[in-house]
Amino acid sequence: MTPPDSRPLAGLRIVELSSFVAAPLCGLTLSQLGADVIRVDPLGGAADYRRWPVTADGESIYWTGLNRGKRSLACDLRSPDAQRLLQRLITAPGPAGGILVTNAAGRDWLGHETLARLRRDVITLEVLGRHDGGTAVDYTVNAGLGFPYLTGPVDHSGAVNHVLPAWDLACGLYAALSVTAAVRNRERTGEGAHITLPLEDVALATAGALGYLTEVQINGSGREASGNAVYGTYGIDFVTRDGARFMIVALTNRHFRDLVELTGTGETVVALAAALGADFGLEEHRYRHREVLTALFASWFRERGGDEVAAALAKTTILHERYATFSEVVAGGALERNPLFANLEQPRIGSYLAAALPAMFGGRHFDATPAPALGADTEALLTDLLDLPAAEVADLISGGVVAGPKE
Description:
alpha/beta, 2 domains, three-stranded antiparallel sheet
């Protein structure tokens, strides 16, 4: 394991008051890069503390996955005493601290102006739902954006939600980037920062950058649904004799020529191009005539088993992958073969292969320690960072202001 004090963000301390995906992912990313991230939860845990998937004993696999490598402080967020403690923790002096990441916006005691009165150069990042401060989650943002009407079979008339919370993930990574940028600016200028990051705006910006919104404004019409076909080029899924399914993508002329050669359809493709007045050397023509091309290639896949198809594709330049379930990915040994994964002993959950930071620094991944028990670091944080006497901490615990780990 790469020691945290040798990682790029070593020496930073982040206080994270959050739940669900985007803000915790921000904290996880910063932690894997070496920052000391303190996750703050209400007594008994936030709304995501028992979120599925869970173990047979009801422990959240989800929660521990997003909170690896952090320290945990539990307190009664409605208590004025707890609120003052958190303000002190966030604004503690020194170059390490003064950074808050939260999706619990709208609390005056946690607002940037309040914290800036206690520490002028404080950095606060607030993950919001909408740009106007309204509430939203990934699934509602996605519903209002347009993607569900492009997702699913082309003959399906309704909307299809995607399973991956893509906007939460993008938002969490934008948040981590924004925090590091604000820290760099504070080092350069001595100024703090109040950063707001609406989930809705992350989705809109992404849709705009990829052209989904721009083409409506420029061309006057939106994108058509294309099912499993890759928009604007040739890519589609094929089923083999034994029911295996492969995604095939021919982005370049070389890919397409290899696909034609593999399937033995060269003469037919030439004749088809002449009949249609098409030039299959152009991506737009391959896309426009994708259905007839797919019908032509499909017989080659239907006549062969999955293993034979995989072996044949491996000898070509064609971009391809065999569809797999999560269970098949794990059973097939993909995690063991990838240095991204290392064994993690996670209390309450068990032993499993956990992913490190995907980026490699000097050929090495930055992995994370297990997620803490709720409130595991409460006493140490109050005594070490706020210099509270042990007796005062004990009184805070007995009074229900803060809490340590449950026995």
